[in-house]
Amino acid sequence: MVRREIEGKRFLEIVLIVTISFFFIYSVDVSCQELPDFIIGEIEEMASQGNESIEEIYEYYYYILNNPLKINLLSLEELENSPIFNRFQAYSIVEYREKFGEIVSLSELKLLMGFHEEFVEQIAPFITFDLSGNIGEKAGKKGMSGDISLRSKYKSGAKSPYLYASSLLNYNDRIGFELVGESDMDEPLTKYYMPDFLSANLSYSSPGTLKKLILGDYRASFGQGLVLNKSFSINSFSSSNFYKRRNSISPYHSTNEYNFLRGVAATLGSDNFDFNLIFSANSVDATLKDGAYTSIVTTGLHNTELLLSRRRNMREYLVAANATYSGDFYTIGCTSAFYRYDKECGKIAKEYNKYQIYNGLWGNISLSGTISLGTLRYYGEIAIDRGLSPALLLGLIWNPIYELEGAFQLRSYSKSYIATHSSAYSTLSSTSNQQGFNILIKWLTSRNNSLSFSGDCVYYPHSRYRVDGSSSNLKFAVEEIYTKDDLKISSKISYNYSSNDNCSKINGNISSKYLIFNKLYGETKAVSNYLTTSDYGCGISQALVLKMDKYELHTSATYFFTTDWASRVYLYQRDTPGSFSIPAYSDEGYGVNLFCKYKIDSSISLWLRFYYLNNFASDMDDKYEAKIELRYTL
């Protein structure tokens, strides 16, 4: 069998109508870029670790790609909190600006400590040298700017296609408006021909006392996420970005139909102090029985009568507050959140979930902080819930020189700690029932070569889903990357041991990208899995990429063989902008992916993609998927 772990998204007419009405009034600059390879690799690694927030992570980076960081205007804290720079690089930028003034080009950026040529080329799409605005103040293009995205997708066996559209409008980087509409395959439009999922928000930001105000759908993230973090979760140890860098409210522009707040949020404060107030009254999908909910459904799918009966039939009310003070070398914050559903809990208590059931009003409160001392940054958060069950997360990041970076994190979550809106680092779906640590060391051994080691060790004191009694898990990985000119070779081996089934899994993969001749490139990837249960799997993919001035052609063929679903393999397939697909291959078969990007003229671009999968298993039908995307730049 083959299961699509991650699917691309988009297209919907209602958003297009609203957006075009604005575009006729104002002159709007619409931009479109594609994520660079090193980001694709990071996301692919997270998918292989079972991260369920892959598409949100992709959309997060894609949003930054189309709203690049102004490195001449961002403060030290903002640079360090970005997903692009580590602490050493943030200090390097600030010190260079203080001594020599603004950075005006990529060539000048390469002169800074910690910015070698390959790294600068990788981050180039994410940064700009624009000088409009003030230090510490986000500054965008003057006047009206915006982005519009329209997509459609059809898969074999579907009765109706996937439809999506989104629009983003921004005036002087002060007033923003976002609208997203989505209908999954086979989902009917609601009455008045509206999409199954419709999200909108209106935001205001300024350097004054009222720093930010959001009406509609938004995210909120504070501290290390032990109380409130409605951003995507990170359960991969492939990055040193363990600690939560976002400490604010922000407009929501994802298609995840569960992980957001709906209401009003505001940030008040001064240069060193922020006070956030939040109110949300969001509807959720739930299974009801005799007026009580027995389960909460988070898939967002409503393509059957049963799923439609669960659609947004319960409401959750939430009130939260956060106060954060930032000093010269430290921050300290306090977060509290109180919430309840408008229906009683009717869940059946079982051994694995009986400590995660509550009724009526519930809440959490925490203290968090960071301290920077020389080359070390310490961070942590301690929290309790209404039942006084505790949760603790501590960590440090060491970045003495650009070539060397290390991170260590310790966590201890009580089996009965309940935090519905938490998304701290966790290897479970909840922030509970685990004690563990993780570690990462990255070493740039030369200008062209890097080594990294990562590990995670966790103990589960209590039963968890499908695992009775206590258990533990150990995983570590070693990776080497070599780059020079048009050649990149990466190899990785990882080990995973699970005590509940006394099973070890060894995974190895190697990939290379190289120039064949002129503008024709080759990409080769091989991956293999071996389990001590004697299951194993392997996959190999070969791609040819032709990059011309007006068009890009990408064709790839994949062969896979696995003995069981447990030994499945993941191989990334090129997709349209704003979409991300990592098929999980199982059994035996082959796949073909055809991708074309054609720039019709300076303002119109067309993307086409066709994917075909043939599984040799007699009970599996061939699968195909077709996508088309047209973008118009004003």
Task: Give the topology.
Blueprint: E1 3-4, H1 13-25, H2 37-48, H3 54-66, E2 69-70, H4 76-81, H5 87-100, H6 106-109, H7 117-123, E3 127-128, E4 144-155, E5 162-171, E6 175-183, E7 197-205, E8 210-221, E9 248-251, E10 261-269, E11 273-289, E12 292-297, H8 305-309, E13 314-326, E14 330-341, E15 344-345, E16 362-373, E17 376-385, E18 390-401, E19 404-413, E20 434-443, E21 449-460, E22 471-484, E23 487-498, E24 503-517, E25 520-531, E26 536-547, E27 551-562, E28 569-570, E29 583-585, E30 588-599, E31 604-615, E32 623-632
Parallel strand pairs: 2-3, 12-15
Antiparallel strand pairs: 1-29, 4-5, 4-32, 5-6, 6-7, 7-8, 8-9, 8-10, 10-11, 11-12, 11-13, 13-14, 14-16, 16-17, 17-18, 18-19, 19-20, 20-21, 21-22, 22-23, 23-24, 24-25, 25-26, 26-27, 27-30, 28-29, 30-31, 31-32
Helix pairs in contact: 2-3
Strand content: over 45%
Distance between the termini: 44 Å
* Morphology: globular
Q: In percent, how helical is the residue content?
A: 10-25%
Structural commentary:
It contains 8 helices and 32 strands. With 634 residues, the protein is mainly β. The strands form 3 sheets. It has a 24-stranded antiparallel β-barrel. The chain has a 3-stranded antiparallel β-sheet with strand order 1-29-28. Strand 18 (390-401) and strand 19 form a beta hairpin. Helix 2 (37-48) packs antiparallel against helix 3 (54-66). It is globular and about 65 Å long. Mean pLDDT is 83; it is low at 1-32, 134-140 and 234-240.
